[in-house]
Amino acid sequence: MHAQSKKRTTLENGDGGIDAGLAASIANGEDLGPIVRQAFKYGKPEVLLHNLKNIVKKKEIEVEELCKLHYEEFILAVDELRGVLVDADELKSTLSSENLRLQEVANSLLLKLDELLELYLIKKNVSEAIKTLKACLWVSNLCIMCNQNMSEGRFYPVLKTLDLIEKECLHSIPLKALRRMIEKQIPIIKLHIEKKVCSEFNDWLVHIRSTAKEIGQLAIGQASSARQRDEEMRARQREAEEQNRSGVGEFIYTLDVDHIEEDSILEFDLSPVYRAHHIHTCLGFGEKFCEYYYKNRLMQLNSDLQISSAQNFLESHQPFFAQVAGFFLIEDRVLRTASGLLSESQLETLWETAIAKMTSVLEDQFSRMDTASHFILIKHFLTLLSETLKRYGYRITPLLEILDNNRDKYHEHLLNECRKQIIDALSNDSFEQMVLKKEYEYNMNVLAFHLQPSDIMPAFPYIAPFSSSVPDVCRIVRSFIGDSVSYLSYGGTMNFYDVVRKFLDKLLIEVLNDALLNTIHSCSLSVPQAMQITANIAVLERACDRFLFLAAQLCGIPRRLVDRPHSGLAAKAVLKASHNAAYNELSNLVNSKLDEYMVLMNNINWTVDEASEHANDYMNEVVIYLDELVSNAQQILPLEALYMVGVGALSHISDSIVTAFLSENLKRFNLNAVIGIDNDLKVLESFADERFYSAGLTELRKETSFKDCLVEARQLVNLLLSNQPENFTNPVIREENYGVLDHKKVAAICDKFKDSPDRLFGGLANRNTQQNARKKSMDMLKRRLRDFN
Are residues 541 and 608 in the same domain? Predict the structure, then answer.
């Protein structure tokens, strides 16, 4: 654009402007095309041509001036050029003469050169021959080495030699016959090696399958030993804690490292596998061999997992699980050391196959079992298998879930077995106090279950407050707790104490308590037996805390957690209720026995003419029986139960005396008969007071004593002997002296009361003033009671 504007200005401004602008463009080396087009555009090509001619003339003048300025130098350069031409001619003649002289000298040298070339050719042929011989010798040596390694069974060096021959030697063998022979033999040798290592590998497959069970048994044995050491350590710890809790002494805990075993004991030979895998990899068949290995091991696993229906699983479960354990220990070693022979996904597939089959077998076998001990045997070995395989990273959760799923079924069988044992123990018990003659008997039946009343060793023979069924039941419960913990431990449940406690409650409530109630409600019990059962239940009720502590101890639960409130067994309250039921049954039996003596009141002469100074005969029988009853109860029952037995018996006697006055068979009685009953009560009250204090029942701080249980009969007799029986209707006196008497009963009894014997014409003869006043007061009481009713 600048050039166009400039040219346009030049053309428009005249000749002088065109000349100056065109000269500047030519000097600057610019393109003149735009100027030319512009000149033709404005119709002035002549001006442009004229300017160009002027510029050419100017340049010619400048050239002439420049030549004039450098004319002398140019002449000198031409002269120098002519001197160079003369020197060149001289050099040319010199070269020609030298060439002739050189040709004369070279003729003799050419002859010697021909001889040299001939010798060089001979040397070349000899060198090639030596090279060929060396190549053949090298290949021959390699072949000899290969044959020697083949004869020694060293296949890997053979393959390395063959590979060397193929890559570096074969193409350089000059002899075609030798090369063809070697090319033909190499595949044959490789095929032979492949067959040989396959044969060795197949032999290993047969051998390792038969060895797998021993490997599994050894590994499971190591797990069993480790578990035993762990249990022994826990037992020592529990013993130390128990002794420390009781303040026996101080203990130092040490770590026993003498029995730590290494996994190196599990040694088995995998060299045929490594060799076969490596050889096949070298042959280029690595993937094919991996597939071959996996298929064969899978077939072996499926064969190992087959169980004959005719074979007893209880007898075959250990070899079965040991075979599986050995199989997967071998596969774990192969996975870790055989560098790609077995992949993790393939091993996982093998394990899933085994897990599916084992769970199916276990579910089927558990569904057929009806004995708790069989569950324990299989569970024990199954958990050992799980612990063994867990160390190698196998997922064992499905196996443990099988145990959890059959937990309730196992405990049902265990409860049924304990039910039979408890029923047998109760049925074989005579319910008499155990007599322990030796110290070992005391330790076995008392100390073993913490049933001793004190820590002081008693004198022998020792009479226990319980019968033989109590230690038998404690053994059964202890065995149940141990079996329950044994089944639940080392399983899928980490904190199984609550489960053990639940089934322990179930045993004590649904089995033991029901058996005790059935025994209580049987019709064949005597009073001593019922009393002994009552005492037994009290002992078992106290033993519940020991049972719970034993369960917590075996489960590894600290004692402080068991001692917390609301953490006890529900069975304790249930046994407390059964203890009350046993007491009620005992009371019924005692009352029935007392009724046999109290029925002798029917033999009393209720209208006797003279009052006796002694108690009636039946009362002597009653007191003798009560003395025997309280003496036996004092030896067997705790104070609370002894108190309840005494209160029940005396209350029943009091009720029986009142009932005798109310009996329809008794139409009337007189004062002398009442005096006899008063004598009976005095004997009974004296006995009650003496036994209440001699038995130490005052320690219970009860508001009601034995004597207070006779209060109804005493108040009735006092009323009948009173000189003013009409005071019964006085509220104040009645509350103070006759508070427990019912006015209806009093009215019925008073209607039968006759102050003196009925004799013809004798009713008014011997009546003194006191009798007359008593009779009037009694009549007044009768009238008021009739009006009140």
Answer: no
Do 35 and 28 meet the contact criterion of CB atoms below 8 Å apart? no
Q: What is the pLDDT of residues 322-336, one digit of tens each?
A: 999 999 999 999 998
Instruction: Please indicate, yes or no, whether residues 627 and 749 belong to a single structural domain of this protein.
Output: yes
Q: Assess whether 316 and 362 both reside in one domain.
A: yes
Query: Are residues 293 and 339 both part of a single domain?
Result: yes
Cα–Cα distance, 661 to 655 (Å, whole number): 10
In the numeric block, the tokens 């003469």 are attached to 97
The arithmetic mean of pLDDT across residues 222-235, rounded, is: 82
Which residues, 6 or more positions from 450, have their beta carbon under 8 angstroms from its beta carbon?
Answer: 543, 546
Residue 399 forms part of a structural domain: no
Helical residues (DSSP H) of 338-406, grouped into ranges: 344-368, 372-390, 397-405
**Per-residue pLDDT at 244 exceeds 70:** no
User: Is pLDDT of 610 > 60?
Assistant: yes
How many CB atoms neighbour CB 506 within 10 A?
17
Question: How far is the C-alpha of 370 from the C-alpha of 280, rounded, in Å?
Answer: 53
pLDDT score recorded for residue 789: 62
628, 737: one domain: yes
The DSSP string of 47-108 is: HHHHHHHHHHHHHHHHHHHHHHHTHHHHHHHHHHHHHHHHHHHHHHHHHHHHHHHHHHHHHH
Q: What angle do CA 540, 585, 519 make, to 5 degrees?
A: 55
In a domain, 1, yes or no: no
Quickly list DSSP for 741-753: --HHHHHHHHHHE
What CA–CA distance (Å, rounded) separates 531 from 583?
8
What is the tally of structural domains in the chain? 4
Max avg pLDDT among 78-82, 244-248, 283-287:
283-287
At residue 754, the 3 state secondary structure works out as: strand
- What pLDDT shows up at residue 770? 63
The pLDDT confidence band at residue 263, using thresholds 50, 70 and 90, is very low
State the CATH number of the domain containing residue 435: 1.10.357.30
Domain that holds residue 354: 205-239+266-394
Mean pLDDT of 105-121: 85
Answer yes or no: is pLDDT of 457 > 90. Answer: no
Which residue would you say has higher pLDDT here, 325 or 254? 325
Who contacts 337 (Cβ-Cβ below 8 Å, separation ≥6)?
Answer: 270, 274
**CA separation for the pair 371, 375 (Å, rounded):** 7
CA distance 433 to 461: 12
pTM here is 0.69
Residues 611 and 559 in one domain: no
Q: What's the mean per-residue pLDDT of the chain?
A: 82
**Tokens representing residue 721 in the block:** 């002997």
| Confidence band, pLDDT 50/70/90 cuts, at residue 241 | low
Report yes or no: 507 and 418 within 8 Å, Cβ to Cβ.
Answer: yes
Find the CATH number of the domain harbouring 687.
Answer: 1.20.58
Structure tokens at 552: 């917590």
What does DSSP assign to residue 669? E
Any bridge partners for residue 463, and if so which? Answer: 435
Share of the chain above pLDDT 90, in %: 17
**pLDDT of res. 481:** 92
Residues 6+ apart with CB under 8 A from 277: 286, 289, 290, 293, 338, 339, 341
